[in-house]
């Protein structure tokens, strides 16, 4: 293999698994260390800079960082990153004076349609540059799906209001309670750019016998959740069946319980392992006593006297063909009849754009989805951008934020007449953490403590109250214990070939056998030649230049503890522990003068 | 030295041996030696060899004296017996222990000071008596614990860190051991585990006195450019006379050597040693020719490494003096107290 090019920022960035997995590339280990030190405000601001909604995401994020966490490969469970984020938001000090305001007007007006996470992120990034950001929202309040589809027992309204207001207060121009019915008309208003962040609000329906006849008692999940959030629905039948296996289904069943249902049953077509809901949301629903029946495909809504009395299900089983493609086939077992009064259907969502005329240069593909550039988020009509669920269908909040950041960069470039594909580079720093002999600026002694469970509210109370938050969050003591579990993967092991005397000290001390000195070979062969063969091909090998003995140093990044013992055992300083800080470029920081950047960061 | 305890986490796919143990189960506490010390590599090689030999750690006795090297017995085989003796007196303690319990595996670790200076009188007699043990001398040519004076194994050609010469000739422990009747004599280098680990394995399996003189650089006091025991010097002047592999009887020997250059030797316990010559002219089983050959290497400034001498007879102290077959603590009362009849016979023999 060729020597690893560590000057390419992607190499060390990939080692920071959590940050690499985060769509917004939040510098996770950096803020976790701050939390361990009780510096919650700084931890909050790092999050606010990267993912805009620390309090909201600290409760509701889909947490792609956690399955990626190295701790999960070394021990059993990853660091509770999401819960730690919430600790920063819950315990921070006053930040109002640290939040930038709208910059001196630059004469450009941008319309942001839909005041959900994507549009709010665009506004956050463009306001400091002096853009007039006009947020147009059908509802009376900002938040989009975060307000309508996430029940308040998971996300308190106060947290949501605070974080959406923080952006509005920067100086956005709200046009709330106004529904856009024609893109053409909006274009005529003469905005310099338009961003469509309208989400994927249309819940899918199921066409099974009895659906139409039973429509009084069959509700689309997302519509049901928003009706509950705006208090249009305040009660539900005693027996409720929820159809669907995603996070919306989990929110629906728990909401139904709190509206007074006696028995709630979730049914899923597919096997349990294939359910789309996050494992912790399934866990939360089951903890509240809600059964989840998998392999149940709805076959018929049964009515008596014109009223829904039951749903009939066909039992299914998954079969896989040679290519591994799944097919659900009936098992032939007798149908399952579940008596019920109301049905909530959460079988998927889609974006829909009946309000965008098809003759104004915005192209849609055969599936009626807009054609959007993967890098610049621009539609086929210059100056019109899409992001969040509106772009490619349902994802989650953190993806919407990541889209928002990129769209803001594009809008800025577009309004300044620059090439949209010349994206600003991320900023990176790599600095030695050595403080003295065997002393490092970070806590290099990995703790053995196991992942902590977050405390929950008393179910006797929580199950009756729609707005009582179930998860209580870690207290500062628990946060300290949990944050110490972080392996500091951003503190990189940096190797200097010219200093190495090949004494083997690092090889001998490494607790997880990461390091091997070996003759070089092609990657596949080299992976087999290591002290412990490197089977996890998602993780890179760090290969040095050729050493005096014609060998190379190869480090398998997979389960490195970043404990720094290699550097402590090295007599010549060929190993050093250096902090790699990667900051994704944002419109607000990429173009501001240095002094202003510091203020924003 | 490192301030933290070595983390307990280990690689999730770390191999286990037939004892159900991983390599890390043969480790001891974390080393307090200088960063980069050759002795830590020897420790790691011992750990590796014991893991590969699948030794039950509780059947091993670690013996040592005083010095940086003698501290290292604390850094491997945490679940073994150990005796850290007075300076230079490890050979007699090991001899006594071995006589008392012949069934343990004896592993002595010493240094050039402990062996070639204060303990040389002890060392030579353990060799002579063919005590069944592996004696590893971690040889760095300097007194590290007392801040870098020349030791008795320091070569005439080697200067100290401040450029001073030594007026004395060095003691070559391998030559001495061959002359005194050691059965297994090898020299190796701490920076070459591929050579060292098989030598340790074979030395442990060998019945009789086995010596491995390991050149183990002292990074603090004897790793400068004018030293003959530095990493760089040993790498540049290393003359490997052969490669040794040890295979258990059940395992197949992988024959990837040129034909006609290798010889197999079966040890007393059935394990196979395969010796592959890298130097055609050197025959490690011929006592007549090896000492002149070693002298030639020395004169050329080469460090001859590998298995230098092997006595295939494998006789140890117990055979030489006819001790009982079982450890003393297993001899029952009837054997220990034979009664008045035999006592009378013994007394009669002295009249």
UniProtKB/TrEMBL annotation, chain A:
Pfam families: Fer4_20, Fer4_7, Pyr_redox_2. One of its GO terms (molecular function) is metal ion binding. It comes from the Bacteria. This is Glutamate synthase. Keywords: Iron, Iron-sulfur, Metal-binding. PROSITE patterns: 4FE4S_FER_1, 4FE4S_FER_2. InterPro entries: 4Fe4S_Fe-S-bd, 4Fe4S_Fe_S_CS, DPD_II, FAD/NAD-bd_sf, FAD/NAD-binding_dom, Helical_ferredxn. PANTHER family: GLUTAMATE SYNTHASE [NADPH] SMALL CHAIN, GLUTAMATE SYNTHASE [NADPH] SMALL CHAIN-RELATED. Residues 491-520, 550-580 form the 4Fe-4S ferredoxin-type domain.
From TrEMBL, chain B:
InterPro entries: 2-oxoacid:Fd_oxidoreductase (IPR051457), THDP-binding (IPR029061), TPP_enzyme_TPP-bd (IPR011766). Residues 66-214 form the Thiamine pyrophosphate enzyme TPP-binding domain. Coiled coil: none annotated. Keywords: Oxidoreductase. It comes from the Bacteria. Pfam families: TPP_enzyme_C (PF02775). GO terms for biological process: cellular respiration; small molecule metabolic process. This is 2-oxoglutarate ferredoxin oxidoreductase subunit beta. GO terms for molecular function: oxidoreductase activity, acting on the aldehyde or oxo group of donors, iron-sulfur protein as acceptor; thiamine pyrophosphate binding. It comes from Seohaeicola zhoushanensis.
